[in-house]
Each structure stands twice: as structure tokens, then as C-alpha cells.
Amino acid sequence: MVAAKKTKKTHESINNRLALVMKSGKYTLGYKTVLKSLRTSKGKLIIIANNCPPLRKSEIEYYAMLAKVGVHHYNGNNVDLGTACGKYYRVCCLSIIDPGDSDIIKTLPAEQ
Amino acid sequence: MVKFLKPNKAVIVLQGRYAGRKAVIIRAFDDGTRDRPYGHCLVAGIKKYPSKVVKRDSAKKTAKKSRVKAFVKMVNYQHVMPTRYTLDVDLKDAVTVESLQAKDKKVAALKETKKRLEERFKTGKNRWFFTKLRF
């Protein structure tokens, strides 16, 4: 069926949770480190921007499938994801290693 | 959160002379060693894939077509693409880290690997592993 329209409310809550992870948790930004975190089974949640090249997106999803780690497709491009992380650069994919105080890992896969 | 770069995992080598070849992880070094301070693994792979065997081939031709040439290599995790396939061929005793040090040990290891891969190919199992990756 048609995918549920991402309401503004859930989108904002993802941004809030992400901000909390940036403040209190451990994360890595960028394709190379995301793959590294998946190989060493440290990554707990992967977030991919919507303008990520499809080959790279499939590769990250495949690794995440092997590692049994959730992947969230962020509703925004890499510019938006970078802003959501509080950075002044573009972020195409990021891996959350330790969520800190945030409950992003519990709530995000449950939404999908 | 599950470690997947484990022994018996089938992988595809991405860089180097053997780029595009399928290999199987024999031993994984997640934390690296003194000489290689990065995650790497010892893989044994197929250098030359066996040709397609047809029913009308004679026994001599089948034997010639089923030959496999193997390679053994230490590869960085970054230069390897893991797959969802596994190949449970016991190569732990044949291929070791020491077998890469000296030429005669390497030749012996390759011979043993070749033998085991060929007999696995002849049973018809793990067909994906023995087909060439087209790219």
C-alpha cells in the first residue's frame, strides 16, 4: 500500500532524538565509518539520507542486513541530515553506536 | 550487531589482482596484528573458475573442465564485500598464517585448497560460489 505520509510531528521527534544522541551518545558520520561500525558490530542504528546514491544505499542496507541492524531512511537529504546532527556539513549516512540518553533505537524501528 | 565476518563466510574480493573473485574467510583478525593494525582476514578463493560442464562431455573433458585454481591471501576488511552465503569447507588445517610465509608452504596449502574446492564443486553444492561473478 501507499507508505504512510511522514507527519511533521514524527519528523520533528526524530530530529529531537537525533539531537539528544549528538549531545549524549556516540555516533559516527560518513560512509566509511558507517561500514566500519557495521563490520565491527558496534553500530546499533543506521540513518541514511534520501539523496544517497542508490548503489551506496543498497550496500549499506546489505551490510545492515548481515549485521541485523536497523536502517532508517531519513526524510530529508544530506544537507538536512547534517543540519539535524548540528553540523555545518552534509551527512549522507550516520551510525549510532551508543544512544546515550535517547530512546531512538527503541522507537525508530518500531515506527517502521 | 551481529558479527558476520566469521570463518566460512563467502566474500567477494574487491581490490587487487583478485578483484571480483569469490573467496571464503578462513581466519578473521578483527583487531589486527602488529604488522597489520587494521581488521583483516585470511581468505582462500578461486583464481580460475571451473568451466561449465555439459552432459555430453566425455569423462576426460569433464575432469579438465572441473579444475579450480585457488589463491590464498590476507585481505583488509575494506577490500572485501561480505555476502549472505557461506561455504563450509574445512580449510583451517590446510591454510594457516604460516603457510603464507614460505613459498613451499604456500604451494602445499594451495594444492590442498584446490583439491578440497574441486571435490566440493563436483558434488554440485554451493553452486553460487563456483560461478563467476559477471561485471
From TrEMBL, chain A:
GO terms (molecular function) for this protein are: RNA binding; structural constituent of ribosome
InterPro entries assigned? Ribosomal_eL30 (IPR000231), Ribosomal_eL30-like (IPR039109), Ribosomal_eL30-like_sf (IPR029064), Ribosomal_eL30_CS (IPR022991), Ribosomal_eL8/eL30/eS12/Gad45 (IPR004038)
| Keywords for this protein | Ribonucleoprotein, Ribosomal protein
Q: Where is the Ribosomal protein eL8/eL30/eS12/Gadd45 domain?
A: 13-105
Spans traversing the lipid bilayer: none
Is Ribosomal protein a UniProt keyword of this protein? yes
Pfam families, per this entry? Ribosomal_L7Ae
Q: Which GO terms describe its cellular component?
A: cytosolic large ribosomal subunit
UniProt similarity note: Belongs to the eukaryotic ribosomal protein eL30 family.
- Spell out the protein name for this chain: 60S ribosomal protein
TrEMBL record, chain B:
- Pfam families, alphabetized: KOW, Ribosomal_L27e
Which InterPro entries does the entry mention? KOW, Ribosomal_eL27, Ribosomal_eL27_CS, Ribosomal_eL27_KOW, Ribosomal_eL27_sf, Translation_prot_SH3-like_sf
Spell out the SUPFAM superfamilies in the cross-references: Translation proteins SH3-like domain
Q: Which GO terms describe its biological process?
A: translation
In this chain the KOW domain maps to 8-36
The molecular function terms in GO held by this entry are: structural constituent of ribosome
Q: Name one GO cellular component term.
A: ribonucleoprotein complex
What are the UniProt keywords, alphabetically?
A: Coiled coil, Ribonucleoprotein, Ribosomal protein
Coiled-coil stretches: 100-127
> Mind telling me which PROSITE patterns this protein's record contains?
RIBOSOMAL_L27E
**Does the keyword section mention Coiled coil?**
yes
Q: Which family does it belong to?
A: Belongs to the eukaryotic ribosomal protein eL27 family.
Q: What is this protein called?
A: 60S ribosomal protein L27
Query: Native species of this protein?
Result: Arachis duranensis
